[in-house]
Amino acid sequence: MRPELVARLGENVPRYTSYPTAPHFHPGVDAAVCRGWLQALNEGDEISLYLHIPYCDKLCWFCACHTKQTRHYEPVTKYLRSLHAEIATVSRLAGGKGRVRAVHFGGGSPTMLKPQDMVALGDVLRNSFSFLPGAKISVEIEPNDMDEARLDALAEIGMTRASLGVQDFDPKVQKAINREQTFLQTKTVVDGVRSRGVESVNLDLLYGLPHQTRESVLSTVRQALTLEPDRIALFGYAHVPWFKKHQTMIDEAWLPGPEERFAQSQLAARAILDQGYEAIGLDHFAKPGDALALAAHAGMLRRNFQGYTEDRCETLIGLGPSSISQFRQGYVQNMPSTTEYGRMVDDGGLASVRGIAFSDDDRARGWIIERLMCDSGFSAIDLVERFGEAGQRLLGKASSTALLDPARLLELHGDHFVVPVESRPFVRSVAAKFDKYFETGKARHSVAV
User: Fold this and answer.
1) Helix or strand or coil: residue 92?
2) CB 288 within 8 A of CB 239
3) Could you count the other beta carbons within 10 Å of the beta carbon of residue 298?
4) Which of 271, 208, 195 is nearest to 235 (CA)?
């Protein structure tokens, strides 16, 4: 690797699942604003729903999600009553406008729900919103939760895509992150969802975890590939103990350094590509016929709070504590505290507490960042045609970045700004160049690679 790129390995930059990023949300965008945005939906709008389940029966020390551990089910039962109340309120405010194209159950551990509660939640959604034929239903699955009854419940709610957290199969690594899960457990769940007609299986893998080596990462990847997943997400572990206190359970002396992290990521990516998968954006891979690969080929790949997606819906409604909604007007986030969330929604209110309304400049910068993250580049002509003066102003920034950066992370080819192949692992650093909030913000971020 070129020395000027090695220096970039330790940079801390946002992950850019949104722009502006969540640390820049503010309380001026609240429940009253969200109510107006919901009521402003158009009759023919296609929408996505995200449902957050903020509980796990065991806390993984690597996790940066908003969740809490509980050994009892009573808090989950109470929470589900609040979630049903929020769904009813959002549905009422939307007034029947908007048709659901996709639903994503995330967490926490959605599969911690009892089978009857998962089915009841699916019924509430379908009774509250109009679903389009062929709507996609995605569920994040914790293999340690699973049994035949839960597999049947997921089939009953119409799950079309299963996403399984694997992380790493090495027992030493698993012990260090408090996530013990055998290959056989994972295989049993993959076989179970496929036998019930699920059309797509995704596996989440991590590099940069405590005690990981290039050899252990490669061993995990090879085992995962034997399951023939339709997609693989290969994430770098984000060590953010100032944000998630339970990560202090991981001794930083166990973590690989920046150059080792990079080597692990490249070795794993090469092993996946060698099996015929296509690289999607920064850290995803898909079989050539998968919808994600087809979207990438068509220039229609998107990036949102769930990562890379083929979902083209302009509106994503987040339900549950900490969930973020995206409207054409801006972002709005729910109260993170589960207790406070319940108090806000149980009486028919919304839990929205902060967000940001888009300026023309935000929209133009957000489009550039999304195209960089999805396509490793963007068209100068498209930028100006889409955003007019706001786009024109950003052309100068793009040109100076391409001409003046000695690391050559961005180049100008004709009317296209392109991240060269060897620089694509650093695309988050390129995106940060177009983030007007990044230099002035006080938020701390994970390393770029």
Assistant:
1) helix
2) no
3) 9
4) 208
Mean pLDDT of 222-230: 98
Span 159-216, pLDDT tens digits: 999 999 999 999 999 999 999 999 999 999 999 999 999 989 999 999 999 999 999 9
β partners of residue 355: 26, 332
pLDDT at 2 over 80: no
pTM of the model as a whole: 0.93
Surface-to-core class of residue 113, CB atoms within 10 Å of its CB (0-12 exposed, 13-18 middle, 19+ buried): buried
Which tokens is 188 given?
A: 């049993």
Q: Would you state the structure tokens that stand for residue 361, as one six-digit string?
A: 């400049």
Closest CA to 408 of 14, 10, 5: 5
Element (H, E) at 342: helix 338-345
Hey, is 407 helix, strand or coil? coil
The answer, yes or no, to whether residue 140 has pLDDT greater than 80, is yes
Beta carbons of 29 and 357 less than 8 angstroms apart: yes
Tell me which residue of 363, 372, 373, 286 sits closest to 326, measured CA to CA: 363
Q: Is residue 7 over pLDDT 70?
A: no
- Rounded distance, CA 437 to CA 434, Å? 9
Contacts of 108 (CB under 8 A, 6+ apart): 52, 53, 54, 55, 56, 65, 66, 67
273-to-59, 170, 221, 322 alpha-carbon distances in Å: 32, 22, 11, 35
Strands (E), 193-230: 200-207
The rounded mean pLDDT for the chain is: 94
